[in-house]
Design goal:
alpha/beta; Aspartate Aminotransferase, domain 1; Aspartate Aminotransferase, domain 2; seven-stranded mixed sheet; 13 helices; binds pyridoxal-5'-phosphate
Length: 395
């Protein structure tokens, strides 16, 4: 960026990079013919009933092509409040404690921009979702890593040690991307107690709360009245209802915090896309059998992925994913950094996997594998990986 003919770029933006997930996908597109265990998108298409309902709404209601209130359609806020009450035991005021956002991503960024000043610190129990790291930098903050335990549980002492007077937030992905872990209620409670004691905010990303394989939905700390001023929950319909491209998510927080986050949301986007808000309403009211079938298929894909990894036990070890659709596979066949191994796998086997190093401290030495794809793709990817590893043994 020292070219005199090039305009100066902000330090904030110079500090960030395009995520490895997208970079791997771009490189794979250049190579051609690759199969993916990379990007975190389930293979399902948006439900036809949702598409039909959005088309009908756009045809019959001219306002559905216009802005909504900044916080979103009142009926959608009320519908989400109902779902939160029924599914998570969380009581929120749909008038003042929720805002629809452009995916969870906007909600997360708006939250960080609200909480973090230049040089402030944000704790990341890690490995963690890679985009948090870039968003913290974008807000001028400093990510502080608190490594998870070997089986991806919370190391509360590591978190305690990471807290300083500059700590403004801790970001928790529960269930977790990239580890597939699910933090226990006791772990979530302990973090909230610490947040209240040291006056920072726990930002919980609940994007995958619908997908817990033992059926035990994790505690949403907004359900605890005593924590409300120290918790922001962010969620999304992207993965749950195959709406990734519609860009619809939300933030829930106590009224005082929400009012501040709203200022960022208003300045950045005005409102979440109105047709997508109608899609969200339709998805929430659609036949629950659709979601049950997605869950069933993802459970099968998880079993398949684990079985295929077990067949490669000389080459990989892993912790059983308990939620979401990812597994962090530790590779035993190389000492090279994960970026190098992922690149070798891409060029040598034509398989996309995401280098674990991009998920912060504790991620190195792993590849993140997604089992959101169809079974045929998962099998093809593992066939290729197995062939590539065997060929490497003979070389
Ligand atoms: C943990 C996590 N949070 C947020 C997102 C982005 O969600 P959205 O599409 O709602 O912006 C993703 C997408 O992969 C994710 O894995």
């Amino acid at each position: 960026m020292n070219d005199a003919n090039f305009p100066p770029i902000s330090r904030r933006v110079q500090a960030i990079a395009v995520s490895a997930t997208k970079a791997m996908a771009q490189e794979a597109a250049r190579i051609g013919g690759c199969v993916s265990l990379g990007q975190g998108v389930p293979s399902f298409a948006t439900q036809p009933a949702v598409v039909d309902e959005v088309i009908r709404t756009l045809r019959n209601h001219p306002a559905s092509g216009k802005y909504t209130l900044q916080t979103g359609l009142p009926e959608l806020r009320r519908r989400i409040a109902r779902a939160l009450r029924e599914e998570r035991g969380v009581e929120i005021d749909p008038e003042s404690e929720i805002c629809l956002t452009v995916g969870a991503m906007e909600g997360l960024l708006a939250t960080l921009l609200t909480l973090v000043d230049q040089g402030d610190e944000v704790i990341l129990p890690s490995p963690t979702y890679a985009s948090y790291i870039e968003q913290i930098h974008l807000a001028g903050g400093v990510p502080v890593y608190a490594p998870l335990t070997a089986d991806w549980g919370l190391d509360l002492e590591a978190v305690r040690r990471a807290v300083t007077p500059k700590t403004r937030a801790l970001m928790l992905c529960n269930p977790g991307n990239p580890t597939g872990n699910v933090f226990t209620n006791a772990e979530v409670l302990a973090l909230c107690d610490l947040a209240m004691e040291r006056n920072f905010v726990v930002v919980v990303d609940e994007t995958y709360d619908y997908l817990v394989y033992d059926g035990r939905t994790p505690l949403s700390p907004l359900a605890l009245p005593q924590c409300r001023n120290h918790v922001v929950c962010v969620s999304s319909l992207s993965k749950k209802y195959a709406l990734t491209g519609w860009r619809i998510g939300w933030v829930t927080a106590a009224q005082g915090l929400m009012a501040q986050i709203m200022k960022v949301h208003d300045a950045a986007t005005i409102c979440a896309p109105t047709p997508s808000q109608h899609a969200a309403l339709a998805a929430l009211d659609a036949d629950p059998a659709w979601l049950a079938e997605c869950r069933r298929q993802l459970r099968r894909r998880r079993e398949l992925c684990c079985r295929r990894l077990d067949d490669l036990r000389d080459f990989f070890s892993y912790v059983d994913p308990r939620g979401a659709f990812y597994v962090m596979a530790r590779y035993l066949f190389s000492d090279a950094p994960s970026h190098q191994v992922a690149t070798q796998l891409l060029h040598g086997a034509g398989v996309i996997a995401i280098p674990g190093g991009c998920y912060g401290l504790g991620g190195e030495g792993h590849l993140r594998l997604s089992f959101g794809g169809e079974e045929a793709e998962i099998n093809e990817a593992f066939d290729r990986i197995a062939g590539w590893l065997q060929a490497g043994k003979k070389r």
